[in-house]
Amino acid sequence: MFDRIRRPRLLLCFLLAxxxxxxxxxxxxxxxxxLIGEPRQASARHEDTLIDLARRYKLGYDxxxxxxxxxxxxxxxxxxxxxLAKLRILPAAERRGIVINLPEHRLYFFTPExxxxxxxxxxxxxxxxxxxxxxxxxxxxxxxxxxxxxxxxRREHAAKGDILPAVVPAGPDNPxxxxxxxxxxxGGAYLIHGTNRPAGVGMQVTHGCMRLYPEDIEAxxxxxxxxxxxxxxxxxxxxxxxxxRLWVEVxxxxxxxxxxxxxxxxxxxxxxEAARQSLVPVDWSAVQQAYLDARGMPVPVTVSGxxxxxxxxxxKKGPAA
Length: 321
Description:
Blueprint: E1 24-27, E2 35-36, E3 40-43, H1 50-56, H2 61-67, E4 81-84, E5 88-89, E6 97-101, E7 106-110, E8 116-121, E9 124-125, E10 134-143, H3 151-159, E11 179-183, E12 191-193, E13 204-206, E14 210-211, H4 214-223, E15 229-233, E16 237-242, E17 245-250, H5 264-275, H6 284-293, E18 299-300, H7 309-317
Parallel strand pairs: 6-15, 9-13, 12-14
Antiparallel strand pairs: 1-8, 2-5, 3-4, 6-7, 7-8, 10-11, 10-15, 11-12, 16-17, 17-18
Helix pairs in contact: 1-2
């Protein structure tokens, strides 16, 4: 059924990849918490833009801009410290196959063995070309795919004086890049694919497809077989536990959601539900600040050493005989 799903979260531990790696890669461990990765920073060089740094550190454009408010995207400046959003809470979805969280502009691939997750930045559908939510699967994979622009896309381009052909063959001018995977979503040709314009990865700019860096789609194409399940969610708020602390992560709402954006009340409900298992109070000022900032970076909202209800009950009973 093509609808939004939520599943109990698994507990995870991290293995942070180097900037030169094809993706952030993490080992899954049921004992380590809901967060993956660690906070990181980089020092901008005089010739760097945030687009350069995003590509270098496997981040998307909006992701790195949101994490660095006040920094000029085109001229950060030599020596400026850039926050890298390398710590993140996994989405509230079944840890199986591919999970894409649209407000986060990020794709997670859980290996069939269930012991690793890879994370990639993606571009998603713009306001009038929404990427659908729900559960689907990969139905076909093509290397060096031709592009058949839908009639609606050809009309849109023609209105701007850009006349598209009926088919764009494989090559440097093909916006699908070298790899494409088709999804079983009715009503349209929705793909996970590469791009010939990597500077746009991590934005809400596509006609509904999910677009990855060329090196990322090549790696994912090799790992994700046909029939891999794909879950697409809209979760601007995420909550999770690590080392006995509750964390929240807030992303800006999708453009189509700005008329009725998710509210602080919505975030508070998630926090209250998650905190039911803890015996320590929530720092609501930290929750509100995370909501207002919407930087896409996890923030702790309880003190360290929180006990779950099960752990507290075990302490009251004492050691087992």
